[in-house]
Design goal:
Exhibits S-adenosyl-L-methionine-dependent methyltransferase activity. This protein is α/β, with parallel strands linked by helices. The chain has 13 helices and 7 strands.
Amino acid sequence: MPSTDDAARDITEGVGATALGIAAARAAETVSDNPIIHDPFAQVFVDAAGMGMWTVTANPVLSAAFIAREPGLRAMVRALIDFTAVRTAFFDEFFSGAAQSGIRQIVILGAGLDARAWRLPWPDGTTVYELDQPTVLEFKSATLQQQGILPASHQVNVPTDLRADWPTALQEAGFDVSEPTAWSAEGLLHYLPAEAHDRLFQRVHALSSGNSWFAVNAPSKRRGTVAPGSPQTEPADLEHLWYAGDVTDWLHQNGWATSAVTLGDLLARYGRVIPDGDVMPTVFISARRLTAVDRSWVGQAQRPIR
């Protein structure tokens, strides 16, 4: 494994810089007056990466000074932090529910610098597979190991490009296709090329036994917008990008029961208020793959009474 210094030099570019920006927002939320989430490791990553815009976002004093010079950025910074906070809370609650239901195999697609394998209270016997670019996973592991921070689960890195053959890499790392799994694709769809979306869902489906869970966030039908403060301005292929309706339709057609909540409703649930025009059109979807018994019951319930 590379040293922390080597990993820090690599993390500040490309996808690593995006991961640092989101980590900084989690760090800012954690030290706020009324935090929705608690991520004690986000600031560790920000500090290890060295100076950058993420340093300003994570530090309330520096952020206030920066906004004082550029008042127009206040709403953008606040929106980024609130968006990150409620998105993190949604996926944290999803995994907590999956663990309470008895699932002990977790797969985080595009894990970034959220150290869920370390910070969530996983039951004994839980294995958390984290998939992302090698640069991101190496920096995360090296930083936490140097701090003596141990995971709260059996954590397994699967360094891979999610546009490549990640199912093979995942199974070679020990993944058991016969076991129910809780999957997440957090903030991922927008950063994959459009042709990779269908392939992603097909692969998750093929690797999921009955009673597996899946959570994903997707844009709604308003096009051309991204999360406030996101370093990427447009997806590569707006015409074919999967939207929330596409996701839920596909899951229903392939035997998954789904529920969904909009970003606006999620913000309201946590008491965060953002002007309508500043709310990214996002839907958070959670799903469970139905078993043969479930499908039989649904079929019986849907038959007309004669």
